[in-house]
Amino acid sequence: MKTETTIHGLAASLHPARSARKLIGFVPTMGNLHEGHLNLVREAKNLCDIVVVSIFVNPTQFGPNEDFDNYPRTLEQDSHLLADVGCDIIFAPTVEQLYPKPQVKTKVLVSGVTDMLCGHSRPGHFDGVALIVTKLLNIVQPSYAFFGQKDFQQVVVVKQLVHDLNMPLEIIAVPTTRSADGLALSSRNGYLTAEQRQIAPTIYQSLLAAETQLHDGIALADVLETLKHTLCHAGFEIDYVSAYTPDLEHLTQFDQDVVLFVAAKLGETRLIDNLKVKFIAT
Ligand code: AMP
């Protein structure tokens, strides 16, 4: 496994694979890797000849009061984990490599699917995501790029971007990896106190309860109210509890597949999760 820190170095490392028309898979991450990330890499290894994993804490997708400065940076530990799952190349550029001074003047704005959920709660977040994903896809030029369904809206935004800009690759969405108690793995789980960690799985448990209620015929609005109430009662400060179609279209009734979305804070730590609920026609 090689580690490249420059765009030029990565291009040189990828040259033999490109010349031999090998399938290049790409997994973008911000590091502090856990099993969720590693499962993306395993998927990439299954489908591709060469796998590149980027580790880059992207400043443009963090808001002014978010955790950019404190975001855990654990490159050495991440390198060991990636070597174990067969990653071929780590791309770990500096901020200056990707955002050279004096400034990047190009914006990549995806409209519509960024209006709601995290797009609404974290203004500018998806502009930063769209810019860095565009830059990384242009640098790596993979055949496939792998993203986690834990960040469901991010997958929709990236797929839209790739489609609209005619980028020659396929986006693969990988199911969420969870702890045994259901909590979606996240680098931010490390911020939780022991007590908060006990409460955190309530998000997924209440999403599963909501799924059962929907299948039992309880109205979507009532199910969302119960979900909010359960989370508030458990000690969460709710950012949003919402439902959309898998394409992030508005919906008011459970008359087609629905995705339930939660973003909620435990203390200072913001957690997100989602669950797709299948509509079963009777
Ligand atoms: P991050 O490092 O948080 O930017 O995440 C990098 C990639 O890993 C994104 O595509 C995430 O959606 C994905 N990811 C993060 N956590 C999980 C998880 N628990 N299960 C599956 N994918 C995940």
UniProtKB/TrEMBL annotation:
Its EC number is 6.3.2.1. Pathway: Cofactor biosynthesis; (R)-pantothenate biosynthesis; (R)-pantothenate from (R)-pantoate and beta-alanine: step 1/1. The keyword Cytoplasm applies. Beta-alanine binds at Q61. ATP binds at residues 30-37, 148-151, 185-188. It catalyses: (R)-pantoate + beta-alanine + ATP = (R)-pantothenate + AMP + diphosphate + H(+). GO terms for cellular component: cytosol. InterPro entries: Cyt_trans-like, Pantoate_ligase, Pantoate_ligase_C, Rossmann-like_a/b/a_fold. The active site is at H37 (proton donor). GO terms for molecular function: ATP binding; pantoate-beta-alanine ligase activity. Keywords: ATP-binding, Cytoplasm, Ligase, Nucleotide-binding, Pantothenate biosynthesis. The keyword Transmembrane helix does not apply. One of its GO terms (biological process) is pantothenate biosynthetic process. (R)-pantoate binds at Q61, Q154. It is found in: Cytoplasm. Catalyzes the condensation of pantoate with beta-alanine in an ATP-dependent reaction via a pantoyl-adenylate intermediate. The reaction proceeds by a bi uni uni bi ping pong mechanism. HAMAP family: PanC. Homodimer. Belongs to the pantothenate synthetase family. This is Pantothenate synthetase. It comes from Acinetobacter apis. The gene is panC.
